[in-house]
């Protein structure tokens, strides 16, 4: 596995926007006490991103956040937390959250990837589905089943400029609180995280749920497995360095919230690795040259990439 010396060649930059196009993105102030507002014709979102031991951009960004002192999150390595309100109703089975890529990664997957994916599906997220060998690879889960926390908030009507959306930078999303408790109770949705996620592993249960127009939904996603400090995915029995898993054209890891039926995109969060020889604006800069499916500054993936 590439060591800390190789990882130190890179710094992380986080951007987010309402679309796949990086030109629509804004820089995310990681770990800062501020909320980023994002909107399009489908949804309005207030976003906060926290990363433990953060050493990325911008210079001077806090290395951590008090979020990681919370009893529920003291082991977590990162958090994507947001409040969102939709402009059209969405069936619960249609809302997906996960990773996708613009270019093939099948030639870059390290040995042991298949076993690691099955382990994730078995122990962490049974609802995870996708195709890492496709021309445009993806790994999605139903949002209702994969989010670490889900809170149903109040009705706020149409959002203009984010003024009605609650800020989330100082918030730890707690499961099942707020004015929307009755919404969950009417559908028999459990109030505990593990029970709610298990409940929504059922497609039929997801189809009973509707994300209402104008209601605020709070979500938090993160875990203890992906360490952005050295770009390693740490699973029981497996350590896989993410440098060989990221998109070969933009060297980034993308999280997207989208509709499986309509294709509508609501939120995109982009974690981009910036090599120390690159322009410090990776959104508009050019990636390194690719040779044989790899960047000119990368080594060939091997069994040593998996512990």
From TrEMBL:
Annotated region (Disordered), positions in chain: 280-307
Biased composition (Acidic residues): 297-307
A Pfam family assignment: Duc1
Domain Domain of unknown function at the cortex, residue spans: 11-274
Record-linked InterPro entries: Duc1
PANTHER family: UPF0590 PROTEIN C409.17C
Descriptive protein name: Domain of unknown function at the cortex 1 domain-containing protein
């Amino acid at each position: 596995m590439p060591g800390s010396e190789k990882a130190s060649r890179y710094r992380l930059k986080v951007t987010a926007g309402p679309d796949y196009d990086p030109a629509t993105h804004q820089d995310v102030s990681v770990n800062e006490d501020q909320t980023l507002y994002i909107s399009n014709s489908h949804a309005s979102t207030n976003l906060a991103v926290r990363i433990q031991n953060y050493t990325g951009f911008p210079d001077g960004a806090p290395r951590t956040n008090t979020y990681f002192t919370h009893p529920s999150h003291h082991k977590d390595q990162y958090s994507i937390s947001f409040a969102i309100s939709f402009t059209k109703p969405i069936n619960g089975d249609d809302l997906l959250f996960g990773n996708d890529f613009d270019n093939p990664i099948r030639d870059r997957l390290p040995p042991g990837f298949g076993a690691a994916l099955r382990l994730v599906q078995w122990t962490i997220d049974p609802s995870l589905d996708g195709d890492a060998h496709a021309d445009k690879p993806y790994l999605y889960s139903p949002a209702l089943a994969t989010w670490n926390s889900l809170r149903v908030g109040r009705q706020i009507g149409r959002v203009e400029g984010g003024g009605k959306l609650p800020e989330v930078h100082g918030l730890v999303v707690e499961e099942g609180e707020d004015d929307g408790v009755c919404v969950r109770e009417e559908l028999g949705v459990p109030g505990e995280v593990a029970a709610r996620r298990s409940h929504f592993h059922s497609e039929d249960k997801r189809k009973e749920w509707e994300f209402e127009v104008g209601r605020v939904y709070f979500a938090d996603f993160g875990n203890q497995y992906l360490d952005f400090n050295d770009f390693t995915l740490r699973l029981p029995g497996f350590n896989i360095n993410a440098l060989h898993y990221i998109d070969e054209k933009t060297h980034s890891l993308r999280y997207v919230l989208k509709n499986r039926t309509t294709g509508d995109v609501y939120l995109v969060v982009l974690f981009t690795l910036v090599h120390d020889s690159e322009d410090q604006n990776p959104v508009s800069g050019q990636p390194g040259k690719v040779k044989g499916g790899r960047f000119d500054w990368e080594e060939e993936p091997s069994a040593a990439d998996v512990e």
